[in-house]
Amino acid sequence: ALTLRGKRVNQDVTVSPTSVDFGDVDCKSTSALQRQVTVSNYANSTGAAASVILAQSSWFTVADPVLTIPSASGTTPSSRSFVFGLKQLPPTIGEHTEQLTVNITGPETSTKTLALRVQSVGAIVVVEPTSLSGFKSGESKSFTLRNEGNKFVYVRMASSTPAFEVTSGRGLYEDFPLASVATAKLVATAAGPHSANITITRADSPLAFPP
User: Fold this and answer.
1) Non-local CB neighbours of 107 within 8 Å, separated by 6+ positions
2) Measured between alpha carbons, how far is residue 202 from residues 157, 166, 185 in Å?
3) What is the pTM of this model?
4) Average of pLDDT values for 69-87?
5) What CA–CA distance (Å, rounded) separates 182 from 142?
6) How far is residue 121's CA from residue 95's CA, in Å, rounded to a whole number?
7) Which residues on adjacent β-strands are paired with residue 182?
């Protein structure tokens, strides 16, 4: 019988996963989503420390930026986790990524790269033209709505005065090639000039900017 024995001397500290995706999150919203990144210490003889620094302008948060990881127990590493979250997203549409450095001190000094990603989604409603004039009593005139965002939105429209009626609502698809047509109609019951502001608000998905 031959007995073979060995002792692990690898002092490695690992970070897993090295990329974190928060998926689709509504623009201008605050999300409770969290993602964990685990730091594992394989060294039997000594503990380790890991730290990460987020810029003030970062879209992300970290619950505890510094971790202390005890030494491993035999072949079983000791592990601790960074918990990342999201700040309130800005009115920006599209993919946002940040590359972070995880600094490892002990048993050997090293750095690891960590990527954080989130996709900000919402609607950007463009109105053309932004003014209509020259109405005669009972006359209707049209304007168009277009969604230049990356999420479907259903919008409501309201007139600031009963002298004008406006079509009640429209669904706007993201990146839709055709604009949606709406109408404003003068229903004046008295002589004289009339004017109104048409307010457009969302009925479901977020608007990145108020139209």
Assistant:
1) 11, 13, 41, 43, 45, 46, 48
2) 9, 15, 22
3) 0.81
4) 94
5) 6
6) 9
7) 143
